[in-house]
Amino acid sequence: MFKSTLGAAALSLIAGMATAGTYTVTVTNNLSEELLAPILITNVSNDSNIFMGSYVTAEAEEQILTGDPAKLAARIGPDAMVGHGTDGPPGVLLAPGKSVTFEIETDATAVRVISMVAPTMLPDTYVTNVVDLSGGDKIKAELTRFDIGHDEGTKMIVKFGEMMMSDDTMAATDDTMAATDDTMAATDDTMASDDTMASDDTMAMAEHPKAGAAATITFVKKM
Fold it and tell me: Are strands 213-221 and 21-29 parallel, antiparallel or unpaired?
């Protein structure tokens, strides 16, 4: 289940305490091969328009599956701000290793950032974070990748690295079972020693190469 670092009540409180400010926003795609769809930014008090229990609202699902934030932006209203890259098609995506810069105006001191990862390699994943803008005139944050489980049929938000870890662990278990069968069939002279075999713990803990900070975002307040 998706959980924010700050409690909902605390986020709502700090989100309404600031006067409107203009920010220059820069988003960098850290993924090696995948593109990012248009980026939606909004006051974190609008999280109820994005998340519903352990899943997402229909409008947020639309953005995560298609990359188009129009329906979610319409549900949120004037607090929704969207920036996008120039790659593609259709010319609104952010290519791997590239950055895009745009301006927003908000009176929030905490904002939600959300963007679909284009499904060229894996379906129904997105990047997001809550960014606290009260910590200074320049704030940098990482955007973490999640999977909504739509393609898998679970419809439950899971952190991307944890999802892949589970798959890798299952594969490791299958490999271990196969190795056990091979060991039983092998003679004592041809069996591999225990020291040369990778442990299940090592296999399960190996980080998936696509896990981690998929993107970074920087907010610079204009004076």
Answer: antiparallel
